[in-house]
Design brief:
Distance between the termini: 44 Å
Number of domains: 1
Structural class: alpha/beta
Order of helices and strands: EHEHEHEHEHH
Number of helices: 6
Oligomer: single chain
Largest sheet: 5 strands, parallel
CATH architecture: 3-Layer(aba) Sandwich
CATH class: Alpha Beta
Number of strands: 5
Amino acid sequence: MKTAIYPGSFDPITFGHIDIVERAASLFDKVILGVAESQSKNPLFSVDERIELISDIFKDNLKIEVIGYSKQLTVDLARDNNAIAIIRGLRAVADFEYEFQLATMNRSLAPDIESIFFTPKDTLIYVSSSLVKEIATFGGDVSRFVPENVKTALNNKIAN
């Protein structure tokens, strides 16, 4: 069975992330979304909240699993789950330099695990979790960027 890890903070997950997950699932037997704690990013949602939102989205897809992780290298998470690849998303040229550096370091740490890059659909290439949170914070409609359960959770979190 060929397994890939798709790590990220997913705070919140967007249609861009979902596009990448679904395309990766068409190539791998199993895709594990590794939801990183990412305290340095000051997340809006807790890891458990993010896992719940994402799990709800993919509840009918048996090829997709959602797990949380912290204080662990992504390559170690991949090894622990017998993954052969780490999925990364690229939105723009600005992402490339960091992602290239990360992939090179991961290859140095785990030469047996490949980094594979996906770009989202052209209609989603500008979408980021940060922008979605900002739009929601100012009362904007985020329904074009996130699923309904995420939109509801965002609105509830911001209202409180």
